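G., the chain you wanted modeled:
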Amino acid sequence: MEDIAIKKDETPYLIFACKKCEQYSYVKTIQKTKKCLRCGRTHQVQGILKDGKVVFGMTEAVNTVKRKQNELATPEFRSGSDFVVATNTIARPKSSVTVVRNEDQENDYEEKFMEMLLELSKLYKRYPKYLLEIMSENYGIPAIELNTLIRSAKKSGMLIKNDDDDHYSRNSSRKSF
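Predicted structure as tokens:
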């Protein structure tokens, strides 16, 4: 009877971040090139050896890439164990009192919105509107103010909306409203 043994994979893999989009990936160290699955940039393995980390085995490579990507993820999109439920907040009914905003507060929202767009454009080339809504909550921008900011950003050419779908992209040639 033959002895069946499971051989542990000891192949060296290089874990590296794409120089263009910063997406983590892995490649066998004996390969010559690796194409980024996200942006399509081709990397010469010899050129990125010093920038990455070498691990042994396919399972370890996959787990390391997942771990590094999860560290970069925004809190809304991390795994379920990172999800925090706010139980100590009480929903209050909306009052009929109108809120008076001063000019400093509007400028503050514009600055926060610009920071948010910059962060989103670093992570994604195009993003849906609901992602803007989620991120605006983290930046403390009210939903009513967000719609105004989106409108003025589209009008100034800072934010570009695709007509076929509900996705936006940041016009990198424009610096402000």
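The mean pLDDT is 77.

Shout if anything looks off.
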